[in-house]
Amino acid sequence: MSETRTWAVTITFTEDGDKTRADAVLTGGPEEIRGWGRAKRNPVDPDVPAVGEEVAAARALHDVAHHLIEQAMHAIESWEGHPVHVTESRIP
User: How far apart are CA 60 and CA 7, in angstroms?
Assistant: First the structure.
């Protein structure tokens, strides 16, 4: 039977006027990975902090995903002995 592992992401939000910053930390894998994202509310849009948090969180998670791909590429390159490219794609 294969081992089950769990990774967790913690996202912390910082608000500064019409700007929201999200800092994401992925733990549980071989290394802790950090990413961040930012959202800025247009002054003509309604003040709905949850929307800014969603946008900033999505951007922070995207940053974490990018770091994960980079980490995997470096690991593969160390095994293969030459540069590789891992495509960031979605599975439908």
Answer: 16
